[in-house]
Amino acid sequence: RMKLDVDVLRYLSKDDFRVLTAVELGMRNHEIVPTELIDRIARLKHGGTYKVLKNLLKYKLLHHDSSKYDGFRLTYLGYDFLAIKTMVNKGVFVSVGRQIGVGKESDIFEVAREDGRVLAMKLHRLGRVSFRAVKTKRDYLRHRSSYNWLYLSRLAALKEFAFMKALETHGFPVPNAVEQNRHCVIMSLVQGFPLVQVRQLQNPETVFETIIGLVVRLAEHGLIHCDFNEFNIMIDDEEKITMIDFPQMVSVSHRNAQMYFDRDVECIFKFFRKRFNLSFQESIEDIDGSDEVGDEAGKPCFSAIERKSGFLDRDLSASGFTRKDEEDIQRFIEGGAEHDTDTISDSEGVDLVEDQDEVGTVDGDSSHLVEQNDGFESEGKDESCKVCESSESE
Ligand code: ADP
Ligand code: MG
Fold this sequence. Notes:
Blueprint: H1 7-11, H2 14-26, E1 33-34, H3 35-42, H4 48-58, E2 62-65, E3 71-74, H5 76-90, E4 95-103, E5 106-112, E6 118-124, H6 130-137, H7 142-169, E7 177-181, E8 184-188, E9 193-194, H8 204-220, E10 223-224, E11 233-235, E12 241-243, E13 250-251, H9 257-276, H10 311-317, H11 323-335, H12 341-358, H13 361-366, H14 376-392
Antiparallel strand pairs: 1-3, 2-3, 4-5, 5-6, 6-8, 7-8, 9-11, 10-13, 11-12
The structure holds adenosine-5'-diphosphate and magnesium ion.
């Protein structure tokens, strides 16, 4: 499993981060960033870039690829370090501790503030699983697939952060959203355990009702969790519930909303039936001789839930999460590896270009790495176009 050796952070110099940032910038329009381009963006004296590249390679922050032309790309670790460095510089936390969770598309660590308070850091890995499948299937997309994970993981983090903030505002039991940068979300550390690890409850009925109540209240606010199960519900010693993991949430106006809602509800019913032996009677309407196992009594009915309007748009855009972001990430999540990846890659390409005007994360963050060089950003962009054209025409 992924190891995050943050000690390496201490050995990395300003020049190291400068070159790492240069590769990140280059990856906006290059899957493999040509070495020459990195050198021109980083602008270190006396061929310093080449020495630094070797160092970054040694620490596995970059990957070297010379199949098409000589170049480098960021590894997950390299991207992690850029996010971590940025957060540490901002004073969000001072150290990274043990890994507390491994999801299929994330790694979760403890981090500590200066005052010793511990927070949780979620590093999103969207595209980690699926794009490998895509790669083998669709060979011609190979040259584009690698900055997909950068883009998608950042999008997942942005979405998670936006939803967590909005949900907290509306009084839902979620972690406190502290900060987001690139593919990284910092939130409060939830006490207790995922429900899946709990064998016994004092009041299983109460816990069950609380959880179903949450699903309903979410829908009233226009949202469906879409992955609401015993892995994403935390419970503490007082049997207090906290829900986590939001990148896949959808609006109740989604075309499959009913199905997602019913699936979330069914997951909870099934888990409590099996684990805590709660029994739910079949409702009268369903005893009509059909082969299907009938609906259980007490299951909330999606179409009967009264909506409180405006939740999504108003509150999410406050965190910078746009409708287009939602479309992009949803297209990926719903499509998975089977998905028509052309559309993803195309829309991503557009986004990468648009980002250069927005100058969100990367430009703002890298400023501390390059403060003595004002022409850094624009230069990087200009150079990248030239090199891009020249290397593509070969
Ligand atoms: P994934 O999307 O990969 O499933 P999750 O957000 O569900 O990621 O996190 C994976 C696991 O990490 C959770 O099941 C939980 O055990 C742990 N975890 C996540 N967030 C927190 C948190 N804020 N506090 C404590 N543990 C957490
Ligand atoms: Mg999860």
